[in-house]
Design brief:
542 residues, elongated, Formate dehydrogenase/DMSO reductase fold, 10 strands, mainly alpha, Alpha-Beta Plaits, three-stranded mixed beta sheet
């Protein structure tokens, strides 16, 4: 009879020494000379890499797409995306075709455009287009998190990552393609709806015009020439729309940008007003010119400081001029970067000798430089192709803010540094300028909101937002502008009729008017961002 006792420890040790399952699993992998799933996706990859004049592209067979979102899950998992972050999405398009109602799911990711707007707009050159594959990649280490590419891309493909403070996007799993393995979305699709193809760039460009779109309701392909190909046995009707087209909601307000835009325009407008007063009214006290120049320079510096709050990586803000050759954002930053020291120099010269030649030259120069910088600000939004941000809408809006805030500040300066009787003439001109500009702005905004609509379906969506969810903010802005831009100047003009106008009351009124005007312009610039709508691919996160 054996005296050996077998304990549970003996069993555990024996099981630990038995590595047959691990060895078999390892041997299975060692025997494979190609990726394990190759037999499923090999036919979904091109036979050879792109040649000269060609590039990779996504090809989507919409008839095979079942909206299972395996592509979304695989992309999220294999790229290590954060919760709530997505580089691929799936939407639904519905319409009435010749055979009756139709419904189609649409999977979409980066389209790796021939002329990528994200690359053209980036101020830090954080994008590059591979000259051999055509894949547009984002360089995370170079990104400063300005998010401008999310506006310049008509498809809103780049997505801002709050945790990292940068933008990220699909790169077609270029590292996998480089070794002959399919991108995550291609490999995961159970029906083979997504494939990688090769396209001749010249042929694609020649076949793209202003009426071309990837799917009904998408942005015009002429903007960036996207390469993705969607094909379906029966073409979708032109009247088809995405099911999320009816769920338009206000966008982000971007408060740091709002403050920056309003204060830079106030600064430029004040410098211009002070320069004009110095040339037109030589009898004004020197204190008017000194106070105005210092106020303008202070507002400009405060604005530039506020702008950094918009960046995800503010310590890298110095890199924002790298794209000056192609990015309007870089040009604006460079322009205001030159404006700031020029403003300080102009204010310093005005403090020393406000009537001197140097003060006159610097005042005129900083005014012109500031107007150029405000022009760059307008172009930043105009080049995005958003209908609500067209140059014929954005430039007048920014110009009106420059005039309103500049003249309102000049009013305060005039009444604070000079007796109302002495400054009566300039005060009348400035008050009339504020009232006239405010009336024009209120009239233009009322016309935009007219019941008949704009005639532009995309712009009408902006109008619906302004008349719907944003209506309280619209009414509040109108009330502020009417009170500060019309009521206060008209009351000041009425007080000037008296032989001895009450100086203290007029100064207090001017300050109230400036506060109301600035608050109204902050509300207006916030609405500028929140009411922006544009054509988009179905299912893109809003």
């Amino acid at each position: 009879m054996s005296t050996d006792l077998r304990t549970p420890i003996d069993d555990y040790l024996e099981r630990q020494r038995d590595l047959s399952a691990v060895e078999r699993f390892s041997a299975h992998h060692d025997r494979e000379t190609a990726p394990l799933q190759e037999r499923w996706y090999r036919e979904l990859l091109p036979a050879s890499p792109p040649g000269p004049g060609q590039q990779y592209r996504f090809e989507v067979d919409m008839d095979r797409c079942t909206s299972c979102k395996s592509c979304v899950s695989a992309c999220h998992s294999l790229n290590g995306l954060d919760a709530g972050e997505s580089w691929r999405s799936v939407g639904v398009v519905v319409g009435i075709g010749w055979s009756g109602p139709t419904q189609q799911t649409v999977t979409t990711a980066c389209h790796h455009c021939v002329d990528p707007a994200c690359l053209a707009g980036c101020p830090v050159d954080a994008y590059e287009k591979d000259p051999f594959t055509g894949i547009v990649t984002h360089l995370d280490d170079q990104c400063i998190g300005c998010s401008y590419c999310t506006w310049t891309c008509p498809y809103e493909v780049p997505r801002f990552n709050e945790r990292l403070g940068i933008v990220r996007k699909c790169d077609m799993c270029s590292d996998r393609l480089a070794v002959g393995e399919a991108p995550a979305c291609v490999q995961a699709c159970p029906t083979g709806a997504i494939a990688i193809g090769v396209v001749d760039v010249a042929e694609l460009v020649a076949g793209t015009d202003a009426s071309s779109t990837l799917v009904p309701g998408a942005p015009s392909s002429a903007l960036t020439v996207p390469t993705t190909r969607y094909h379906r046995a029966d073409a979708l009707p032109d009247t088809a729309t995405a099911t999320d087209d009816w769920s338009e909601s206000p966008a982000h307000a971007h408060l740091p940008l709002v403050v920056m835009l309003v204060l830079t325009q106030l600064s430029v407008g004040t410098f211009a007003a002070v320069a004009a007063l110095a040339a037109w009214a030589p009898s004004l006290p020197d204190g008017v010119l000194r106070t105005g120049a210092v106020a303008a320079a202070g507002a400009g510096l405060l604005a530039i400081g506020a702008s950094v709050g918009h960046l995800g990586r503010p310590l890298q803000a110095w890199r924002a001029v790298l794209g000056i050759g192609h990015s309007w954002l870089s040009r604006e930053i460079a322009a205001f970067g030159l404006f700031a020291p020029a403003a300080v120099a102009a204010a310093g010269a005005c403090l020393v000798e406000p009537r001197g030649a140097l003060a006159h030259v610097l005042g005129a120069g900083v005014s012109l430089a500031g107007l150029g910088a405000v022009g760059c600000s307008a172009m930043i939004y105009a080049v995005t192709g958003r209908r609500a941000w067209r140059l014929d809408r954005t430039a007048p809006a920014f110009a009106a803010t420059t005039v309103l805030c500049g003249l309102s500040t000049a009013m305060v300066v005039l009444l604070a540094a000079a007796d109302p009787v002495v400054a009566a003439g300039p005060v009348r001109v400035v008050a009339a300028g504020v009232a006239a500009t405010a009336a024009l702005v209120l009239g233009a905004e009322a016309r935009l909101l007219r019941a008949a609509g704009t005639g532009d379906p995309v712009l009408d969506r902006t109008v619906r937002l302004l008349r719907g969810p944003l209506a309280p903010a619209v009414r509040g802005r109108a009330a502020l502008l009417a009170a500060g831009g019309l009521g206060v100047p008209l009351l000041l003009l009425a007080l000037l009729v008296e032989p001895h106008p009450p100086a203290a009351a007029m100064r207090a009124l001017a300050v109230v008017g400036l506060v109301l005007v600035v608050r109204a312009e902050v509300a207006g610039r916030s609405l500028f961002f929140r009411s922006m709508t544009s054509p988009r691919m179905p299912g893109i996160p809003r």
